[in-house]
Amino acid sequence: MIRAAVTEDMPRLLEMGRAFFRESGHEREFEFDPDSFAETLSLLAQHGLLRVADGPSGPVAMGAIDVARAYWNRKVVLSREAFWYVDPGHRKGLGRRLLTDMEAAAGSYGAVIFDVVAEPGPRSAPLEEIYRRAGFNPAERTFRKRL
């Protein structure tokens, strides 16, 4: 079952957040701060922007979205996945269902665009395949420079 996150989910979501941070490669450049992530989870949950998928003993996947009006036209609402993570033992199909749920949540806020990210690394090819099968098309590339 996929549902909105609740306060009781937070310890488990914090664990998954740490795992996502490692797998996404962010830990090569930054330190994971559990207090910051916990605050982010809380804010997202308060606004219905944090979704979880339950397994037999609690959450096994999570996904969060950002929603904002476009800077170039305030009538246009845009959305993107902030992050999403599925425990490795539950990755056969659950990720696609979670992604669909996140799209629906974005649509409930009036979003007309939903962007997703595939960071470079071992996860990029599988993520790109999931995105293509779900009807996503490449839109732009992001370049990063450490300051």
Task: Please supply descriptive tags for the structure shown above.
alpha+beta; five-stranded mixed sheet; 4 helices; 5 strands
Description:
The protein has helices spanning 10-23, 34-46, 94-108, 124-133; strands spanning 2-4, 50-55, 58-70, 73-86, 111-115. The chain starts with a strand and ends in a 14-residue tail after the last helix. β4, α3 (94-108) and β5 form a beta-alpha-beta unit. The protein is α+β, with helices and mostly antiparallel strands. It has one domain (2-133): Gcn5-related N-acetyltransferase (GNAT) (Aminopeptidase, 3-Layer(aba) Sandwich), CATH 3.40.630.
How are the secondary structure elements laid out?
Layout (H helix, E strand, L loop, with lengths): L1 E3 L5 H14 L10 H13 L3 E6 L2 E13 L2 E14 L7 H15 L2 E5 L8 H10 L14
Parallel strand pairs: 4-5
Antiparallel strand pairs: 1-2, 2-3, 3-4
Helix pairs in contact: 1-2
Integer count of domains? 1
CATH class bucket: Alpha Beta
Mean pLDDT figure: 93
Outline type: globular
Low-confidence parts: none
Determine the fraction of residues in helical runs and give it as a percent range.
25-40%
Rg = 15 Å
DSSP E strands, number: 5
N-end to C-end Cα span: 42 Å
What's the CATH topology label? Aminopeptidase
Helix segment tally: 4
CATH homologous superfamily title: Gcn5-related N-acetyltransferase (GNAT)
SSE ordering: EHHEEEHEH
CATH architecture: 3-Layer(aba) Sandwich
Beta-strand percentage range = 25-35%
Q: Strand pairing plus helix content: what structural class?
A: alpha+beta
Largest sheet, spatial ordering of strands: 1-2-3-4-5
* Biggest β-sheet strands, sense, barrel: 5 strands, mixed
